[in-house]
Design a protein that fits this description.
Elements: H1 6-15, E1 21-24, E2 27-30, E3 35-40, H2 46-62, E4 70-75, E5 81-86, E6 90-91, H3 95-109, E7 121-123, E8 127-129, E9 132-134, E10 137-139, H4 142-160, H5 164-182, E11 189-194, E12 197-202, E13 208-210, E14 226-229, E15 235-237, E16 243-245, H6 252-256, H7 262-271, H8 281-300, H9 304-317
Antiparallel strand pairs: 1-2, 2-3, 3-5, 4-5, 6-14, 7-10, 8-9, 11-12, 13-16, 14-15
Helix pairs in contact: 3-7, 4-5, 4-8, 5-9, 8-9
Enzyme class: transferase
InterPro entries: Fructo-/Ketosamine-3-kinase (IPR016477), Kinase-like_dom_sf (IPR011009)
GO molecular function: kinase activity; protein-ribulosamine 3-kinase activity
Length: 322
């Protein structure tokens, strides 16, 4: 037990009263063979730890075993957050595991049957996408929820004082594109224009649990927040920034960095078809990718701002067809 802080030992012994423990944070092993991932933060990180803890809870409730199970979260007397979850030794996501992940996302995590029918869009507490704080909130309508998410990032960019043009275009997307492209999801009937002709059809989108930041990079092994549990060979996702939203939004950053094989998207939509109107799928993905380009502009600056502006230009040009 040497080297493990007493406060952590106390919490571990509540989980396994008869066990002894060894290791160095963040990986602790019990004499039963169980592995724990443990981290102590600073008082300024309480909100971030709480967001991750609540995200893991809703993911594991909807899709058991798809993410590390949260075992304990609390704020200690000195204001320090304590987080304990299962420890997973994670390897690179193989093509076969990516297909399993796609199926589990489509049929479990993104299934409306996995959550209470009374659930609304958004999330009840703040979360962090990387280092960016997301205010979140609860919304009856998906377009209002997503407009607030985009507006949150635009406000943070505005406070930086050097993204005036980007933010002006962002306001057009927020005030004009989102209501037209996503507002149709507030009712069961949509009407639109596709290839010059009017179309109507039935439409219904339920809020489902989203990971919120599901990405892999093709240029680096184990870069991202999806992989395989080396102990089981099964896919695992981690570091979430969850909320309840339109399932397609969870595929957006997965498309940006190229780490997921095309078979992942094919399998996903084989299990869960694209939302109607299918002809606007790529526009919706442009809109959902925009969120992550704006967040990366906040985090890293550089070319992400121009990439965000290109997405906005595409969406604004499409306004007459929406």
């Amino acid at each position: 037990m040497r080297g493990i802080p007493k406060i952590i030992l106390d919490r571990l012994q509540k989980l396994e009263p008869e066990a002894s423990f060894s290791g160095v944070l963040p990986k602790i092993r019990s004499s039963s063979g169980s592995l724990y991932y443990i981290k102590l933060g600073s008082p300024s990180e309480v909100e971030q730890y709480a967001g991750e803890a609540e995200s893991l809870k809703v993911i594991c409730s909807a899709a058991p075993g798809l993410a590390p199970k949260l075992l304990a979260f609390e704020v200690l007397e000195d204001g320090v957050p304590l987080f304990i979850s299962e420890y997973k030794d994670i390897g690179s996501l193989s093509s076969s595991a990516a297909d399993v992940l796609a199926r589990r996302l489509a049929t479990e995590l993104h299934s409306a049957d996995s959550i209470p029918s009374s659930e609304k869009f958004g999330f009840k507490i703040a979360t962090y996408c990387g280092a960016t704080r997301l205010s979140n909130g609860i919304f009856d309508r998906w377009d209002e929820c997503y407009s607030a998410m985009i507006g949150d990032l635009l406000s943070q960019l505005e406070r930086r004082g050097k993204y005036e043009k980007l933010c002006r275009k962002g306001e057009v997307v927020k005030e004009e594109v989102i209501p037209k492209l996503l507002g149709k999801y507030s009712s069961n009937i949509f009407s639109s224009v596709l290839n010059g002709r009017a179309i109507t059809g039935s439409l219904k989108v339920h809020p489902v649990v989203l990971h919120g930041d599901l990405w892999l990079a093709y240029y680096a092994l184990q870069s991202g927040n999806a992989g395989v549990d080396k102990a089981t060979g099964q896919p695992i996702i981690f570091d979430p920034a969850s909320y309840y939203g339109h399932n397609e939004a969870d595929l957006s950053i997965a498309r940006i960095f190229g780490g997921f094989p095309q078979s992942f998207f094919d399998k996903y939509h084989e299990c869960l078809p694209k939302s109607e109107p299918v002809g606007q799928y790529n526009l919706r993905m442009d809109l959902y990718e925009l969120f992550h380009y704006l967040n990366h502009t906040l985090l890293f600056g550089g070319h992400y701002g121009s990439s965000a502006e290109k997405k906005m230009d595409t969406l604004i040009r499409a306004l007459p067809t929406l």
